[in-house]
Amino acid sequence: MGCCDAPGLMPVESALTKILAEVKPLETVHAVSLSEAMGQVIAEDILSPINVPPFANSAMDGYALRSADLKKTDTLTLAGKSFAGIPFEGVCTEGQCIRIMTGAQMPEGADTVIMQEETEVDGDSVRFLIKPPANDNVRPIGDDVCLGDIVVAKGNRVTAREMPLLASLGIATVNVYRRPSVAFFSTGDELRSVGEPLEAGQIYDSNRYGIRALLEKFGCDVIDLGIIPDNPEKLREAFDEATKADVLVTSGGVSVGEADYTKDILDEQGEIGFWKIAMKPGKPFAFGTIKDTWFCGLPGNPVSAMLTLYQLVQPMIAKLAGHTQYQAPQRLKAKATTVFKKRPGRTDFQRGIYQINTEGLIEVATTGNQGSGAFSSMHQANCFVVLEQERGRVMPGEDVTIELFNHTMY
């Protein structure tokens, strides 16, 4: 039975719940060098092997001293210097101060740093204009990270925020989950690759480029199987090749009335749920398995394909990858400044442009044409305007929910 033959429409939330209930993490673990860890999911808690900083150091350029000495005098004798990487090797004794730079190790005996702007220097005599408490402007051992602290928890994806943190701890290798491998292809005799001339009735295959871009942002290893014509043997070969991957994503071929053999082959080789989802754009969507490979059949229209991939496949891939810290794109309330056309019956993900007005309030306007083939609206948008399933037309001034694009859209 085709996805549009079944009575009723499945709510988007129900479809996602069903997907996530079935998918289990891959859990294959291997070690990678830190330079290869970007975008990978951490397979075990990473504990700090050291204190950061490993020694007490100065928070600014100035003079290190014994705070108790300033209770007796405001002038001390300069006894040496401490630079980052070249510490003062002696002991700061009573009546002495040490010139110190930001990040330099605190001399033994000193407990306080006074910034150079709060001093008057005359040769080796330094007069201090303030008398701060002990430990002022001093970063203690372990001020940032203590030995044994969990610095990155299991299930986090390594980003540019984690890379320097791990490097600062001297961690050279990390254990990560294997990236999900995802094969994908487009179907249709009407499709042509970019760079080829178009003949009557033909269009360029844009979906594979958008699908690949998102899948790579999701943290997948991708296998592009190209354009598969509406030929049963070619389709069977493509499905056989794709079952080497963890996931197969296709665009086109899951709607009623399409002149192809995709649904027949899926019925032969897999267990597929063809759904009508109460989602616009993106009603036709298929999910299931082919042998040991997860299958996600996206609609053929460009915006529909990208939207279903973003809303339904993205969280599925996150679970498969062991990314337990994954967070759905952020949703906020906004004030509509334009009309949003809608009929009750499906949750509508319209493309919008939000901004903060002069009063600090969030406003959102439509990008215009919301057709499932109007991909220029995705280029213009910076959010989805999520209009509830039973909601109708939205007028200017009404409150709406917007969903900010996450990093995968940038």
UniProtKB/TrEMBL annotation:
Annotated EC: 2.10.1.1
GO-annotated cellular components: cytosol
InterPro entries: MoaB/Mog-like_dom_sf, MoaB/Mog_dom, MoCF_biosynth_CS, MoeA-like, MoeA_C_domain_IV, MoeA_C_domain_IV_sf, MoeA_linker/N, MoeA_linker/N_sf
Pfam families registered for this protein in UniProt: MoCF_biosynth, MoeA_C, MoeA_N
Enzyme class: transferase
Protein name: Molybdopterin molybdenumtransferase
Listed pathway(s): Cofactor biosynthesis; molybdopterin biosynthesis
MoaB/Mog domain location: 183-319
Annotated PANTHER family: GEPHYRIN, MOLYBDOPTERIN BIOSYNTHESIS PROTEIN
Top-level taxon of origin: Bacteria
UniProt-recorded Gene Ontology molecular function terms: metal ion binding; molybdopterin molybdotransferase activity
Cofactor: Mg(2+)
Keyword presence, Transferase: yes
Family named by the database record: Belongs to the MoeA family.
Metal-binding in keyword set: yes
Alphabetized UniProt keyword annotations: Magnesium, Metal-binding, Molybdenum, Molybdenum cofactor biosynthesis, Transferase
Known function: Catalyzes the insertion of molybdate into adenylated molybdopterin with the concomitant release of AMP.
Spans traversing the lipid bilayer: none
Catalytic activity field: adenylyl-molybdopterin + molybdate = Mo-molybdopterin + AMP + H(+)
Biological process according to GO: Mo-molybdopterin cofactor biosynthetic process
